[in-house]
Amino acid sequence: MSTSAPRKRPLRAFLSDLVRSPRRIRDAAWRVGLPTSDRARSTFVFGNVFLHLHSVRTHRWSLRWSTTWGLGLAATAAFLVVLASGVLLMFYYKPYPDVAYDSIKDIHFIVPTGRFIRNIHRWSANVMVVAVLAHMARVFYTAAYRRPREFNWLVGMALLVVTLGLSFTGYLLPWDQLAYWAITIGANIAQSPRELTDAFGITPWFDPGGLQRELLLGSDIVGEEALIRFYVLHVMILPLALGALMAVHFWRIRKDGGMTRPWDADQRLGPGHDVYPVFTEAPQKTYQLAAIVRGTSPAVGRGPEHTVPSMPHLFYAELGVLMLTVFACLALSMAWDAPLKELANPAVPENPAKAPWYFLGLQELVAYSAFMGGVGIPAIVLLGLGLIPFLDREEAGTGVWFGGPGGGRLALASLGFGLGAVLAVEAFAIRFGWLREWFPDVPQLAITAVNPGTLLAAVYGAYSLWVVKRYGWARAGATALFTCFLSGFVVLTVIGTYFRGPNWTFYWSPADWPGH
Amino acid sequence: MTPTTARARSRLDPEPVPRRDFLGIASLVSFVAAMLFATIGMLRLPKAAVLGSPAKKFRVTLPDALAEGEAFVPPGRSVAVFRDREGLYAISLVCTHLGCIVKPGPSGFDCPCHGSQFAADGSVVRGPAPKALPWHAVTVRGRECVVDEGAVVPAGTKVSA
Amino acid sequence: MNKNKHLLLWSSLGTLVLLAMAAVQENYLKDWRAIQASMHTEAGPTEVRLRQIVAPRLRVTDRCVTCHVGMAPGEQGATGHVLAAAHPPVVHDPAEFGCTVCHGGQGRATEKADAHGDVRFWPTPMIPTRYAHAGCGSCHTHVQVPNRTVLNLGRNLFERHDCLACHRLDGRGGTLRPGRAGGMEGPDLSNAGARGFDQGWYAKHLRRARQRDDIAWKAGFAALDAPDLELIETFLATRVGAPRLIEAKALFHTLGCRGCHKIGGAGGDEGPDLARVGQKDPGQLDFRGVRGEHTLANWFSEHLRDPARVVPGSKMPRLGLDDEEIELVTFYLLSLRRTDAPEAFWPKDRIGVTRLGRREFGADGATLYSTFCAACHGASGQGRRFPGAPPMPAIGNADFLAVAPDAFLRSTIESGRPGRRMPAFGEASGGLRRDEVDAIVAHLRREAGVSEPETPHDTPRRVTADPARGKPLYERHCAGCHGPGGEGADAPALNHPVLQAAATDDYLVETIGRGRRGTPMHGFRQPSTMHPVLAPGDIEAIVAYLRTWEKSR
To answer: 3-state DSSP call for residue C520?
Structure first.
């Protein structure tokens, strides 16, 4: 029948098309039908814009819980929860001083489910930070940053920075005392390069600190300008950046050959009993397997018998982690309300004024030198982390927890050393004070150069070099350094969170704080 | 084309890129230049040409009974005005460490945020503050005086009433 | 594979359970829902929904009426719950002003503890009900409140002249008209001060009493003499519908707290300015020395009981107030709120005080004296001594007033004794105007019965004796109390520049000669067991020696 010929019974044909149209719409959107065969499953994955970042088949090693503990997924899931709850909050939140505080009160008291959604936003943001940090540690301890994944390690670090930036910018929005003073301190940390430029007397000509602070606040005080800037960063610029970086990060996982696994992963797994037949029907096209990526493809030279179709195996795992994360966020939100203090009062500093918990380690260092604690040490840490994959070009132990020379015992020893060093330095500084308490006239430059933060960094660095020398492996040094910094971060954060009271004085318990 | 380069090419080999594709280079360079210029223009926007904060200069009338060394903090300002035998002077109350508001006391200033302490003349006694509290310019006009938070004067500058 | 399916199954089921819990909490477990569900009107059950009063210009969004349904606009007549009760009749309609403007608390909250402000991080909790009228102080600044004595004189006159027979006042008195006429015989005067009253009321009353044949008028209204009339009018002007608050303010004006504390620019500066002390955030206060509950009211009471226990190092002495006085002063302090409502909402009295120079305290000398001086110099000027502090001079002493010229008194009040405890009360620093200072001086003289100083003061400096002869005399007879350098110890400082400038030689000579009866200062013209009589020349020599401390001359 010619398509151009007029139909004999046009109305009837029209009616029958109309009746069929729902099914046709479904078929147009969902070309494969139910994924019953392996082929259909594959099409299902690469035919879907949201799923096609996954490879069609997944190695059984990647699906073992202990391979990743689902931490990257958990971070992503937490981000999705943050995103959804954040968009909902934007319906009621008004980014203007005073009004902002009132609108948070409204969200708390009268917006239907508002309090719950705000709690979820707050808690899933925290879950996200924890998951990101844990994910990073996992990648490090399984040596998954190695070639060809160096670039993705860098992207991951960018994601960490953006995640922390999102948390930090969100902190100001409620416009309460906590927010106001945490941001005042944060903005002044941005200005702290002045500590150096002042020491050299070049601030009038070269003032990167002042410029940073001004760009951040849009004014010389934390006011309405700062609030709208933080709002724009929080709801638009940083989420977009995070989304773009996430896309690159995920794409790179795929392009770099999926999850890292040890070279003998197949032997370790043994024969798989839940492995599906490779193909249930003759391949329609051959280039599915030939879609080769650069680098060593996991499939090259090996049989596909240790892979399973991503649909449904991988997706059960992903959905499981997603729902577990959602459950955790919800449970936390049911148990604890997000904090909200008094309306911001620029005349009365919050005492103690504490930043979000994951910055309290830095705030602990800031209490000695603003520049070193707020800019110097973080820069050194980021630089060190970024260099790790380019210095560690070895291969032994890739994909195995605490793989490489020394293994778990080295990590444990480094943990002990790291904890010991940070506790010793902190205990000393808390008990005896620091340079200024002994020599009141000491120049600031000396304190900037020698303070608990730099001392700790130097001790950790020296220890790692010693480890490199002792084991003769760069990986050993990296393990030592990473473990030391991690233990330093944890201890400083715990001290900043639980043991610092008014005037940033050390207290064994908040019950000992004066006042209240 | 010299004979050395004129060797037989497979049908499948791509066309060699001409060494001097003037048009291509020109178009790319102008593209980059345009994007660069646009980026610079966009980056200029977030730095305000003038800040929307209130005037730095303000007038205050000190109470007659202000004792020597007792701080008078004009409401809404973060500066303390003092009077002693040598004259009037004003010291900033913004901690030089991380910008908290320090509390004037009998022996100097205490910062609640990280425990910096300053002597009565603003110099650092202890804590992380990198430098002394700045002194601000004061001018006397009859019974009232004008304090300029924007102008820093050397410590010890006192203006006689 | 199955592990992951279990993970998905159980985490999804868990999430479902949590969501169901949240839904129940959101839709069924809110207290206000239960409260509203238990109410009903004649037309049927009360609709269960969020209720609020919004007054954008006052920046008020008060959801108090979500629970206090009976106070919501147009919802009177509900029953079934104690919160269905309507607001007692007040001048200000809650529908227009909201609730938090007067009562404090957190208007946006819909849960009891948060709404009442009994939570951390809410700086303005509700004013306790027993001090409810302290909320008037958010906007009002009641004017011309005399001290307690003057107030009670007015009140007694009002009652003695049987005004309550016709008029209702603060819930007492008033007679219903007989027959059909209905209403009260005379208008209710409980708000007379706030509304203002006819200045010609007395003449009208008098005329009516003469014209009417009505027995009640004839027998009930008698002529008043001028001072009584003034006292009654003073009393009536304070009737603003908050009698206990006025009582508290009158007590404040009796105790002399303004001698050390400023409110609205008038007062001494020994203690902190109290203008907005009622707005203090209890969360910022130190309760370590406070017994009992951690509320602002209790902090005030405990502080008044023993200042140094609550605020270590406080210079404020223990005042020895009784419980009722502490209660009243606490009440008044709580009323010192002055919230920054837009000026369009300011009542007459506040505009009068802030813009037109009206006074919060009465203009009579007795009130002025007790408001500014009584705390230190005693209720009748007998002087006072607080533990650990030098005694305050007895300025009501007749011997003192007999030798002190008015100019000396005035300049002392206006300039004070900088560096000593006596603050300067002159208009520039203490806020007292010249006529007010004069009224205080006149009051002192009236109370002491010394209408003017007895000695002439034409020449301020006339003593020409030799200071060298005065020095040993001073050291023998005076230095014990006044200090070897005249710096003052148990007795006032004599080297003080303001004293030196204000005191005439006659004043000094006469004070030394007469002494001050009732104080440790003996007259040196009469012999005593403590000292011999000094010859007039000796006294003048001492004065000459005192004058060596006078710097600028």
So the answer is: coil
A317 chain-C contacts, CB cut-off 8 A: 4, 7
Tell me the H-state helices in A336-449.
360-366, 370-371, 377-391, 407-432, 435-438, 444-449
CA distances from A320 to A74, A76, A264, A324, C12 (A): 10, 13, 28, 6, 8
Place of tokens 């009107």: C41
End-to-end CA distance of chain B: 92
Test the A interface: residue of B92, B114, B118, B124 with most A CBs within 10 Å: B114
- Residues in Cβ contact with A509 at an 8 Å cutoff, skipping those fewer than 6 apart: none
Range of the domain at A83: 59-262+303-349
Chain C residues near residue B65 by CB distance under 8 angstroms: 269, 416, 418, 423-424, 429
A: neighbours with 3+ CB pairs under 8 Å?
B, C
The pTM (predicted TM-score) of the whole model is 0.86
What digits encode the pLDDT tens for the residues C413-472? 998 887 788 888 988 788 899 999 999 999 999 988 888 777 666 677 777 888 888 888
Using DSSP's 3-state secondary structure scheme, residue A512 falls into helix
Asked if residue A472 lies in contact with residue A394, where contact means CB atoms within 8 angstroms, the answer is no
Separation CA A118–CA A340 (nearest Å): 11
Residues of chain A contacting residue B76, judged by C-beta atoms under 8 Å apart: 347
Chain C contact set for A274 (CB, 8 A) = 1
Contact check, Cβ <8 Å, A223/B53: yes
Q: How many domains does chain B have?
A: 1
In a domain, B118, yes or no: yes
**What is the CATH classification number for the domain harbouring A72?**
1.20.810.10
Whether residue A455 is found in the same domain as residue A375: yes
Could you tell me if C49 lies within 8 Å of chain A, comparing CB atoms? no
Q: In which domain, by residue range, is B88 found? A: 57-153
Measure C55 CA to nearest chain B CA, in Å: 27
Report yes or no for ipTM above 0.95: no
Strands A57-59 and B87-92, by their bridges, are unpaired
Is A219's CB within 8 Å of B46's CB?
Answer: no
Distance CA C350, CA A281 (A): 91
Convert C502-541 to b/e letters by CB count within 10 Å (16 or more is b). Answer: bbbbbbbbbbbbbbbeebebbbbeeeeeeeeebeeebbbb
Distances (CA, A) of A37 to A278, B49, B157: 11, 65, 87
A286 in any annotated domain: no
Neighbours, chain B (3 or more CB pairs < 8 A): A, C
Which of B61, B62, B64 is the best substitution to test chain C (most C C-beta atoms within 10 A)? Answer: B64
Chain C residues lying within 8 Å of A516, measured CB to CB = 283, 287
B39 within domain boundaries: no
Task: Express each pLDDT in A285-325 by its tens digit.
Answer: 444 444 444 444 444 334 456 788 887 888 899 999 999 99
Residues C2/A312, Cβ–Cβ less than 8 Å: no
User: Is A479 a member of any domain?
Assistant: yes
Q: Which residues contact A413 (CB under 8 A, 6 or more apart)?
A: A406
Query: How large is the angle between the packed helices C323-334 and C243-255, nearest 10 degrees?
Result: 110
C-alpha pair distances (Å), C121 with each of A35, A102, A337, A339, C106: 56, 14, 14, 10, 11
